[in-house]
Amino acid sequence: MEQKKYWKGLEELHNTAAHQEAVKNEFREDLPFEESDSFLGATTPRRDFLKYLGFTTAAATIAASCDIPVKKAIPYVNKPQDITPGVPNYYASAYTVDGEYVPLVVKTREGRPIKVEGNEMSTVTEGSNTARVQASVLGLYDVARLRYPGINNGPDKESLEERVKEIALFSELDKQVTAAITGKPVVLLTATIISPTTKKLIGEFLAKYPGSRHITYDAVSYSGMLLANEQSYGKRALPSYHFENAKVVVSLGADFLGTWLNPSEYSRQYGKNRKIDAKKPEMSKHFHFESMMSLTGANADERYTHRPSETGAVALGLLAALGGGVTAPALVDARLKEGIAKAAKAIQANPGKVLVVSGSNDVNVQIIVNAINNLAGANGTTIDWAVTSNYRQGIDAEMEQLVKDMNAGSVGALLVHGVNPAYDYYDAKKFVDGIKKVGVTVSFNDRYDETTQYCKYIIPDHHFLESWGDAEGRTGYYAFIQPTIAPLFKTRAFQASLLSWSGNTTAWEDYLKNEWVAKLGSQEAWDKALQDGVIEPAAGAPLTGAAFTADAGSAATAISAPKTGGMELVLYEKVAIGNGKEANNPWLQEMPDPITRATWDNYACVSNTVAKTFKTELGDNYEINAERRVLKITAKGYSVELPLMIVPGIHPDVIAIAVGYGRGKKQFIGKAAGEIGANAYPFASFNGQTFSYFATDAKAEATGRKYPVGLTQTHNSYEGRPIIKETTLDAFIKNPKEVNHDREHLAHYGEDFRNDATLYTGGTKFEYPGIKWGMSIDLNSCFGCGACVVACTAENNVSVVGKEQVVLAHEMHWLRIDRYFAGDENNPEVVFQPMLCQHCDNAPCENVCPVAATNHSSEGLNQMAYNRCIGTRYCANNCPYKVRRFNWRDWNGADSFEGNLHDTADMNDAITRMVLNPDVVVRSRGTMEKCSFCVQRLQDAKLAAKKAGRPMKDGEARTACQQACATDAIVFGNINDKDSRIAKVRNEEQTDRLYYVLEETHTLPSINYLAKIRNKDAAPVAAGAHKEEKAHH
Amino acid sequence: MHLKYESTLREPLIDGVKDYHQVTEDIISPIEAKPGKLWYIGLFISIALLLFGVFSVTWEVYFGTGVWNLNKTIGWGWDITNFVWWVGIGHAGTLISAILLLFRQGWRTGVNRAAEAMTIFAVMCAGQFPIWHMGRVWMAFFVMPYPNTRGPLWVNFNSPLLWDVFAISTYFTVSLLFWYSGLLPDFATVRDRAKTKLRKYLYGVASFGWTGSTKHWQRHEALSLVLAGLSTPLVLSVHTIVSFDFATSVIPGWHTTIFPPYFVAGAIFSGFAMVQTLLIITRKVLKLEEYITIGHVEAMNKVIVLTGSIVGVAYLTELFMAWYSGVQYEFDTFYKFRAAGPLGWSYWIMMTCNVISPQVFWFRKMRRNIMVTFIMSIIVNIGMWFERFVIICTSLYRDYLPSSWSYYRPSWPEVGFYLGTFGLFFTCYFLFAKYFPVIAVAEIKSILKTSGENFKEKMVKYEDEDVEKFAHDQTHH
After folding, report:
1. Looking at the 3D structure of chain B, how many domains does it have?
2. Topology of A565-711 in CATH?
3. Is A567 within 8 Å of A660 (Cβ atoms)?
4. CA pair distance A251, A826, nearest whole angstrom
5. For the segment B201-257, what is each residue's pLDDT rounded down to a tens digit?
6. pLDDT of residue B59
7. Which CATH architecture has domain A223-387?
8. CB B19 within 8 A of CB B454
9. Distance to chain A for B156, nearest Cα, Å
10. How far is A1017 from A1022, CA to CA, in rounded Å?
11. What is the mean pLDDT of each run of 10 residues along chain A (1033 residues)?
12. What does R_g of chain A's alpha carbons equal in angstroms?
């Protein structure tokens, strides 16, 4: 049927030209758009109003969003061959400060060293390192370092520039110095040097100046051990210790996890026997006898305290109990006696699997310790005399003699390298008097320190990251040091000076190279050595003992009887600050002490009992007020005024003070170390053979003053909350599941707590199809040393806030180590718990942010978009773990306000800022930040795998904390990868010990913890016991 | 037996024999007169406080939130305490103007204007805290869901803080409209009486051309009812949403389903106390005792004792639940760190001021005692400030992980900020008391017809009449 056609008008019917035109034209009438002649004269009709409104609002918004000034980076004009912007280069090096031996790999970006990691090719340290090693990279950029060589104008002048007159040419200095020292016997005073080539060079140098000698002076000396070993084994050396072979470790005050000799090496070894799982429930047993609470003591299974003057008695007691044929002086403390008996029993039960170490610097005590080790069969099993260690070489009597000679005016020239006796020698005044009588004095120290200010010629040495060098930590185990950056300042290698002054024109790097090319046979071998960073003897050499030849009986009689009355004082090294040489390091100063959780200060550690006599005791008042009563501590005629710090576990008759503080003026020593705390070295003394680091008859008096101390943790007890889980080894062997018995309560929510414990039907399944990052932290092999804290700081540009801000609890650490005490306040159990963002799948922080600045990635990361954050702090309030950190002030100049920078430690100097990791943005004031699981490293690993066209392998993505951990207590990886370490730990190896902190809040953390197992007889701190414990928080 | 026009139990809403003119005279003439010395002193002090507040906030914005003594554990302190406190104070105004209007409570007319003004000023003060507590306040506009070039990136609709943004801004807008629409006829009265050109002009502009025509009145009444209808849910919703800031979190002491009703009751409690504080002074200074009578004061005291008791029940319920839930963290928070512990004193101030002391209002004599009422109104507001402080700080300072436990004392910029909002509030209130009719003239006149003494006098003759006769007259008139 034909379709009818309707028409609308005659135009359509006739299809006129006008109609066709009209159909084509959509807008048949002119729209009332007004064309204006000029922009400013334009009218705004009703139709355009909204348009203009929208445009101006949008324009204003965009303009308002762009308030951060743009700083331009300047590209290379000629790109160096090996440097690609954005791609790091790694160089092998080694940390050898004061004789420690830690082979390293240094990460450089665009020519700047920004991070150090342990060199895993070394079998000595196996990649482990310490907080101080991690922080050493910041030491390179220390603005207090001397920037040019010169001649000292003396201490009357005000500024450093006036005091040190620059000498433009090294050759000029060489001329002056050689003229001055020619024909004179020279004394070269250094800290322990473990560089074989430097030692050879020193020999050549000394030979040029007849009558010269080299004296090694260790601020914290181990000469008692060296001399004892000489008497016991005929070798003035230290053996290699093998804690990994010891089933029973007895430490008589040796803080081998924190500060003793080479803690990187020992914590790695010791950690191997602290790993435990239900299939192989074995671990070492660690007895610890000490006067104060050390990091190592805190990790002991059985810990006993004694007066410092009882150190010898304890050692003798142990030897006597082992049948060593000596009579031990009677000890009063029943618990201590019982401890000695227990330790002796354990030693006897494990012949050949015992290691006894002592922190004493007394020759006789060390001979007794050697006798114990000999009886226990440690020689050749846990102690290796075939391979000796070179970590400390100083002999105290030589230093004593030198100071005498200096005062007698018989020292012609004194060359000082890496030591600072005017600060850390116990009788600094005598040293200073002596140095003034020395004809020629030269300092190679890196800053205008207490000793350098008395030296005429100042020729600062390079930082080790700018240097060439080698190191022989254990005999035959070498590490190499190569520059990772051109010298920042006009400094010169110490060895170059010696070369020049001994008339050798070879450059130091050539001297070193020639030496090694000769030893290794070829340039290629040398290149490879530099690339690997280490050369080691072939593996498999058996451990060898040595014949014990000392007379333990005469050593026993020489040990002085313990004191009974009065207070005693003991000096110790803080884990972060050590002997004080590297004290001007803001990262280390702000790292909380593992035990006291205090930053930036030293203090008088006393027990709660002693504190009570000064109207201070543990409790709310002590917790909420940072102000501490200042005590005047007097011993040996010297006194210091220091704030009181209550340390549970310190012997009630002991005051402990850390060395390394009380340095000189900030302008010379540096802002971080200068004029902080009090110097405790003068409490040390010389006992005729060695320095001793304790004093009897100490006195503490109130001064009536108060002084704030910056603590990052004020509450000591975990209040029996199930955030820490622990048990004893016996209980764990009996029933591995028992430690997690409270997790059974979660069962009634359904089979899968993570999924089923919800009000929503169908559960809360969080899908992570690709990667799901997870971390496991083993509380048993975490010793709380803090290396991870500093590693995190370095990796993530975590700001330093300074002491006043720590007092206000404004510190920025993304990763902290919580330390809890439990049990008796004089003999507490200690547990360390690293706490960082748990990257919860059901994160309480995420849903409360009004602007979605914190959100969840598809790989299970809880992310922060700093640019989006407006700083309401709601997320931090709602974080049950309190791991979020707010930028309370402008720590790093990243906000748009001029002149509000809060920097107390030179962290924003143009030089210091070179340490910043360019992969991590610095955060503006007013934003929240927190652990990112080192997302930049994860991205890097993923991209590397992607470029190589293969899946990412387990272990390629490592967080900074994981990498820094000496004991691999932190395992990290992709839990979707069933073959990954983390998946194995979670699903196979550690199902019994595994728990999540605050699991019952259903935050679904990505970090799990493994319960702590104590190898001790006493029952674990059970629920009922917490009532008692609360009295001591 | 005689008839009664009004129950003998019912108190007069306006004392004294007033006619329309006199009402206008009484209320409008202070606007036309030169203010007294006290007013100048008060305004001066208020502005000084305001400027100190501005200085404190500037200090904080420049140097960073770190100048406040908040820390890694305690992210909110005086700032959010003050925010919730001021928002709560605002509630009485809305309750009086909206809910009492809907319930046809005649007594509200005497106090509603000032109470609404108080609401507006209190919300203005409250709003300062969430704004300036932000670390990057210059990015505050991120909380607005506007189309943007960042994706577009939207706000997080899950966040109670975002709900706050909407709740508070809606509340402020509606309250302002309500208040201002009520002011129109009164501004017109001032305009009509104005003897100076400037006053005539300004009040003319402010009154939006009000002529008092029947049409105007009809629209005005309708608008009032609509806004009252809008405001009524707001009375409940605003503080409910504020309470969500805490209730939706996971922190023991915050994570509580009881919060919404508890917060609303507390808000009305504190709001009425603040109204009492202000009106007792205002009626005295402006000699308005005949309009804001003891009867008004007593009515509001009844609300105070009621809401105070609700709040008390809420406190006890929290304690019960903390024990009954069996959650160790919650138990510890309430029994160890709230009712005891270093901040325990704040809990007991709260308990004393909010629960124990308002019980005096069970006694009529006390309810009708101006001095007691005034002191109580101050005590209640101290108590309610501490309630917010207790909720925020005693929950945060010792939560799950004991390693992070901390303590909190305010620093001077925090105190300065709080004082500054008092400055803002009283500056506004003094200006209001001088330039605005503090009592709704038009509304008073409307009740004069039924409750005024003049009108009641006209009824006296009927009350004397015989009932039979009255009935007869009324039916066969």
Report:
1. 1
2. Barwin-like endoglucanases (2.40.40)
3. no
4. 19
5. 999 999 998 998 999 999 998 998 888 888 888 888 898 999 999 999 999 999 999
6. 95
7. 3-Layer(aba) Sandwich (3.40)
8. yes
9. 5
10. 14
11. 75 81 74 58 68 82 63 73 86 93 93 93 93 95 93 85 88 90 89 94 91 92 93 92 93 94 94 90 93 94 92 92 85 90 92 93 93 91 92 93 92 92 93 92 93 93 93 93 93 92 91 93 93 90 87 85 87 93 94 94 93 91 92 93 94 94 91 92 92 92 94 92 92 88 81 78 77 95 94 95 94 95 91 95 93 92 93 94 94 85 91 93 94 95 94 93 94 93 92 91 92 77 42 44
12. 33
Alpha helices by DSSP H, A147-288:
160-163, 170-181, 196-208, 223-233, 263-272
Mind telling me how many Å the CA of B165 is from chain A's nearest CA?
9
Q: In the numeric block, which tokens belong to residue A10? A: 């005659």
Residue A355: per-residue pLDDT: 94
Q: In the numeric block, which tokens belong to residue A641?
A: 């005024």
Give the minimum alpha-carbon distance from B263 to chain A in angstroms, rounded to a whole number.
19
CATH of the domain at B282: 1.20.1630.10
Q: Break chain A down into helix, strand, coil percent, rounded to 5.
A: 30, 20, 50
Determine the pLDDT at residue A1028: 40
Is B371 domain-assigned?
yes
Q: Does a structural domain hold residue B8?
A: no
Interatomic CA distance for residues A667 and A865, integer angstroms? 39
Which range of residues forms the domain containing residue B401? 20-137+157-452
Q: Read off the pLDDT of residues B412-422 as tens digits, 9 standing for 90 and up.
A: 999 999 999 99
CB B396 within 8 A of CB B74: yes
ipTM of the complex: 0.90
Contact: B250, A880; criterion CB under 8 Å: yes
Q: What is the DSSP letter of B11?
A: P
For CATH 2.40.40.20, the residue range(s) in chain A are 565-711
Domain with CATH 3.30.70.20 in chain A: 726-1030
Return the residue of B nearest to A597 by Cα.
Answer: B403
The confidence score (pLDDT) of residue A1 equals: 57
Q: Is the pLDDT of residue B440 over 90?
A: no
B72 to chain A: which residues are within 8 Å by CB? 809-811, 876, 882, 884-886
Fold of A726-1030: Alpha-Beta Plaits (3.30.70)
pLDDT in the model for residue A614 = 92
Q: Is the dihedral of CA A305, A308, A309, A315 positive or negative?
A: positive
Residue pLDDT, tens place only, A829-865: 999 999 999 999 999 999 999 999 999 999 999 999 9
What is the phi/psi pair of residue B109, to 5°?
-60, -30
Contact A291, A694 (CB under 8 A): yes
Q: Which amino acid is at A33?
A: F
A544: nearest Cα among A382, A415, A315: A382
Q: Are B87 and B169 in contact (CB under 8 A)?
A: no
CATH 3.40.228.10 in chain A, residues?
Answer: 223-387
For residue B152, cis peptide bond before it (omega within 30 degrees of 0): yes
- Asked whether the beta carbons of residue B63 and residue A889 sit closer than 8 angstroms, the reply is yes
The stretches of B64-107 forming alpha helices (DSSP H) are: 78-94, 100-102
Residue identified by tokens 């142990």 is A318
Tokens of A317: 């007691």
Q: What is the value of pTM for the model shown?
A: 0.89
- Give the H/E segment covering residue A696: strand A694-708
Query: With an 8 Å Cβ cutoff, are B133 and A872 in contact?
Result: yes
Work out the burial of residue A984: count CB atoms within 10 Å of its CB; fewer than 13 is exposed, 13-18 middle, 19 or more buried: middle
Cross-chain Cβ contact A1001/B404 below 8 Å: no
Q: Is residue B314 part of a domain?
A: yes
Structure tokens at A345: 């029993």
Is B12 within a domain?
no
Residues of B in contact with A805 (CB under 8 A): 66
Separation CA A125–CA A143 (nearest Å):
31
